[in-house]
Specification:
Helix content: 25-40%
Bound molecules: alpha-D-glucopyranose
Mean pLDDT: 95
Oligomer: single chain
Structural class: alpha/beta
Number of strands: 22
Shape: globular
Largest sheet: 8 strands, parallel
Strand content: 15-25%
């Protein structure tokens, strides 16, 4: 291969990510190559032709670094080593090269709000006289309490996956902060040494050939003043909320961008930001401020819960979901940029959550949801299996769940007297395990995921729902995703057109236009399992051309359940 060709294939023109579609891989569940039941890097490499056929531009790889796997790799003990579960650095180099050969870029997951408690930095920090003591948050017991005794934690805040955000370390008689779990101690970004170590590690990965970073809970890195000043803070608040969007967030992100050369090298950057508002996103994604390209909002995926408790279920009427996405479209219309997603490794499957996964409606609802999302303005993210309509799994007893979050919630809720039935109902709706069942490649044993015994049970519906079946069928969900990706690549109006929501109050229909100069697209989507009449007041449909629809006869005044139409309106 000549070096010119190499350069072309990995070139990153200015703002290239604005026309890209990203595909997320959760390596543990994607493809096993060695029969140990866990997906791995060579497994991913063996499926690159499939991803090229789908047409995606970028792969985002969930963590493959060395890790005790308390949180499936989101607890990293060595940032520059690959966990033996997934392979070796040589396997990763091979994956990057093989992806680049196909014109696909690769994004690493950057987990630097916290490390593993097995990371060398943390081991050193446990020594009170070490220079790394200040790299994490250490605090004494609550005044008047015996260190280590029940209830002596510095304050009452809970961790996301554990009863307390504070863990006692007998060596110094002090506690350290871990807002996720005791195996995930939070780094102290106030310390310049921490920041420089992170930037050096990021530069190392860029030199290795990666094309960008998805930044795990990155809006938690600047902790509030109460915490950084050494005082403990008011008890009783959700720990994530009180550490989100801290005072130095923008400063740290701009510094990272500069020091790593993120913009200078046109790398793609997306920050996962629970609790980020539109205002935060406007600042962070404003190109002039040189922080990040885009963020993952949580607002739309939290609408089916009450307040900050994801297990407290609420109904989600369509107008609320539409309004939320429209607000983000509007909020980032002038400066900044949206990311577009329903699914990832932390969310239940979109077709089961927002669509209808019954045999009658699964295919059309998966297609219609995809049309709606991919026709918004921003960078769409596809989560493995979403492209052929994988559904939630039948997880009906606590023994079916493996995720640290689910098990912690079950223990805490049961202790608080919540009935088993209610706990299981919440888990079945919102549990992260749904996203983590192995990818259903075909109808052979274990869905072609492994020749061994998979680490997590395969969804029994794999005989009907699998990638191979979907690929073979031209009218499939896979084919629909291919067309949506092609459209984004081909049409400037899909990438850059102005978004306008119509019929905001309609309970069944999701309708909007995208316009750019004299080009206009109209999306009409029936997001319900009953037919819907087209109401008056839509833009004139005379001369409109059906670009992509779920049903062959897309011209009537009535939409079938989960029918959607993407129309090109006559030139204006
Ligand atoms: C992010 C990850 C999630 C993980 C958490 C802690 O939300 O997506 O999987 O558990 O951060 O790292």
């Amino acid at each position: 291969m000549s070096s010119t060709t190499d350069f072309d294939r990995v070139a990153r023109p200015d703002r290239w990510w604005r026309s890209a579609v990203v595909y997320q891989i959760y390596p543990r569940s994607f493809q096993d190559s060695d029969g140990d039941g866990v997906g791995d890097l060579p497994g991913i490499t063996s499926r690159l032709d499939y991803l090229a056929e789908l047409g995606v531009d970028v792969i985002w790889l969930s963590p493959v670094y060395r890790s005790p796997q308390v949180d499936n790799g989101y607890d990293i003990s060595d940032y520059t080593e690959i966990d033996p579960l997934f392979g070796t650095l040589a396997d990763l180099d091979e994956l990057i090269a093989a992806a680049h050969t196909r014109g696909i870029k690769l994004v690493m997951d950057l987990v630097v709000n916290h490390t593993s408690d097995q990371h060398a930095w943390f081991t050193e920090s446990r020594d009170p006289s070490s220079a790394k003591r200040d790299w994490y948050f250490w605090r004494p017991a609550r005044p008047g309490s015996e260190p280590g005794a029940p209830g002596a934690e510095p304050d009452d805040s809970q961790a996301a996956f554990a009863p307390s955000a504070w863990t006692y370390d007998p060596r110094s008689g002090q506690y350290y902060l871990g807002v996720f779990s005791p195996g995930q101690p939070d780094l102290n970004w106030e310390n310049p040494g921490v920041r420089q170590a992170v930037y050096a590690m990021m530069r190392w990965w860029v030199e290795r050939g990666v094309d960008g970073f998805r930044m795990d809970v990155i809006n938690l890195i600047s902790k509030p003043a109460e915490l950084t000043s050494g005082r403990t803070i008011e008890p009783g608040q959700g720990s994530l909320r009180r550490v989100a969007n801290g005072p130095r967030l923008d400063e740290f992100l701009a510094e990272m961008n500069r020091e790593v050369g993120l913009d200078a090298q046109n790398l793609i950057t997306v920050g996962e930001m629970p609790g980020a508002t539109i205002e935060v996103a406007q600042r962070v994604t404003d190109p002039a401020r040189r922080e990040l390209n885009m963020v993952f909002t949580f607002e739309h995926v939290n609408l089916d819960q009450v307040g900050w408790n994801k297990w407290d279920l609420a109904d989600l009427p369509l107008p609320r979901l539409k309004a939320n996405l429209a607000q983000w479209q509007e909020g980032l219309a002038e400066t900044g940029w949206n990311s577009l997603y329903y699914d990832n490794h932390d969310q239940p499957r979109a077709v089961s959550r927002f669509g209808d996964d019954s045999p009658e409606h699964r295919v059309n609802s998966a297609k219609t949801l995809a049309t709606v999302l991919h026709l918004h303005k921003g960078t769409p993210y596809i989560y493995q299996g979403e492209e052929f309509g994988m559904t939630n799994a039948p997880l009906t007893q606590i023994g079916h769940y493996l995720d640290v979050e689910a098990l912690n919630y079950h223990a805490l809720a049961a202790a608080a007297g919540v009935s088993e039935e209610q706990i299981l109902r919440s888990l079945a709706r919102k549990g992260r395990d749904h996203a983590r069942t192995p990818v259903q490649w075909d109808d052979t044993p274990y869905a072609g995921f492994t020749t061994g015994v998979p680490w997590m049970a395969v969804n029994p519906n794999y005989r009907e729902i699998n990638a191979e079946a979907s690929r073979r069928d031209p009218g499939s969900v896979f084919g629909h995703f291919q067309q949506l990706i092609r459209l984004r690549h081909a049409e400037e109006v899909v990438r850059e057109g102005r978004f306008e929501l119509l019929l905001p109050e309609h309970e069944q229909l999701w309708v909007f236009t995208r316009t750019l100069g004299d080009r206009a697209l109209l999306v009409i989507a029936n997001c319900s399992s009953t037919p819907a009449e087209l109401p008056p007041g839509l833009p004139a449909l005379d001369g409109a051309v059906l670009v992509l629809g779920t049903h062959p006869d897309g011209a009537t005044g009535r939409l079938a359940p989960w029918e959607s139409r993407l129309l090109r309106l006559g030139e204006r």
